[in-house]
Amino acid sequence: MYPIIHDFSSLNSLVEDSTPDTLFIFDVDYVLLIPQDRVFWPVGRDIALKLYNLLIDPLPKDLREKLISITLQQAKVQLMDEGLPFLFSQLLAKNRKFIALTACDVGQRGEIEKLEDWRCNQLKELGFIFDISFPQQQRIVLDQLPAQPYSYPVFQEGVIFSTNYPKGEALGAFLDLISFKPDLIIFIDDKIEHLQSVHKATKVRHINYRGFHFRKAYSVEGSLDEKIVEMQYKHLLNNLRWLSDQEAKELLT
Fold first, then answer.
1. Per-residue pLDDT, 175
2. Is Signal given among the entry's keywords (predicted)?
């Protein structure tokens, strides 16, 4: 239903053919950025989960959250695809509207005071500036949605943080609040359920929609060295510092 893509070259023509009321929306993890360390790649998920459950999960919640926040702050990220700078230069050159839509939570986590600030700064460090399209809307708590046992979605600096709400509900709440109806939404995400959720929101609002299933991160082949991951987790636990793959490898030799 949604075309599978592994790079952004296929979207360049969509930018050229778009109108001023087209809205481009980008997921963040595994679409715009990916951690440098393989433990956080899809290929490393099974080993990472195994060692996390063994070494980190049994810890008291406060310590566990502290360690997770240290990892988030110290593990370096990189561009998901080398074609992204050109794509965004096209969007800027044609003055097209674009935002990010992430399932990232908001508020405090461990030593991170506000996850939304951390995420926005992370994106800026990679050159992604999302507050251009809606500069008058710097921060909005989307509390018109039904209350849930988790945080309301937040729009901040051009990024919608859907938290645990469906992405389509968070996006729809934002569009309704600012009274903006795009003539077309183009959404890129690595998970089919998010593409479907946004599709549902566009149908309700009679907005044309094109979703793209971005799978580059899942096409990476190779295996993960379990000894490196074990070293990373144990060093984090004992020293409150995350080791990169290279640092862990050097300590093992």
1. 98
2. yes
